[in-house]
């Protein structure tokens, strides 16, 4: 049964809005591009030949805790829905997919209804998949979620359905934030799970109800976790037709007042003000404004979908830069260790001194002298105290020893990927489009959503 308390009137008697503009704007009828699949295959090849060997040799995943899998590289763009309970996250997904009144409709209601992380994705037929199955399937991008334990996997579910839009994008619905309460025992590390999805989202819709703009501890923590991902955040002031225009203006200002201390950026995230559900707007409300806002949001979403391959290439290149810097740092620690050890030094004491005070041995400053290394990309020095605490120095070989006559050197491979192969792949995207297609005179919009 469909339950929604967006308006005071009876929703069952309201007319349904025409949603053909959604189908048109998101190009739902368009077949997935063969160019995208070809570029993904090339990207996988570069990753496995030039980047992953360096990851494995220097145990990068134990430093960053962000394992890149084949499933993540080949996955569709991910749109993450976050926000307090009963703000309309599930209703918005139902509206975008046209699920209202069908057996596939996500349950919605006035009370907290989504207690699971729900991944809505494309499949040949409608079915639900248990979290334990999702995490065990290495072909998907969710296998790293096993580390959060059985308590989380019991609250993780996948829904597959045959839908044209889901051939281009994946939606993730999340449990609502519940403020003004004591710490709730969720049974799994909620903040860490949120961070995992935030790190992998191409677009984050942070949804609010204009009648309840509570900003409490969980929401503040969520914004701290999204630091550095501000370009992916969109604020949604949903259920906007439940207020008069004057009240809506007050709420809009209050939203910015509440969010300003939490988002420390020069340009605040874009705010969309509308009512994202299938029923017609309430009478005597700003219908034209709401429709324009909805169209802008759809354009925003379509831009992210269209830029999926550019985003993935940029993300893998940034990942490769971090892996290279990590390898250079470990190599520098090793060089310094061998130089200072001498004949009679205590190996443990010598290396511990280097790890505890790397500035004394110019470990990080020496790396900045290397080509294409920014001080803003350097990891925290404290991270290497933990890293070497579980990975003894004897587990590593210096970079000069990771070379062979047949395979070349790991450092040369990853530098070639960063400087030539990945930029070349990026510049080639879009150049193989249909030559018969008419040229467009419009200025190509800047890709504001590329991962940095």
TrEMBL record:
Coiled coil: none annotated. The keyword Magnesium does not apply. InterPro entries: Dynamin_N (IPR045063), EHD_N (IPR031692), G_DYNAMIN_dom (IPR030381), P-loop_NTPase (IPR027417), TRAFAC_Dynamin-like_GTPase (IPR051943). Its main location: other. Residues 73-314 form the Dynamin-type G domain. GO terms for cellular component: sarcoplasmic reticulum lumen; sarcoplasmic reticulum membrane. It is a peripheral membrane protein. It is found in: Sarcoplasmic reticulum lumen; Sarcoplasmic reticulum membrane. Keywords: Glycoprotein, GTP-binding, Membrane, Nucleotide-binding, Sarcoplasmic reticulum, Signal. This is Sarcalumenin. SUPFAM superfamilies: P-loop containing nucleoside triphosphate hydrolases. Residues 429-452 are annotated as: Disordered. One of its GO terms (molecular function) is GTP binding.
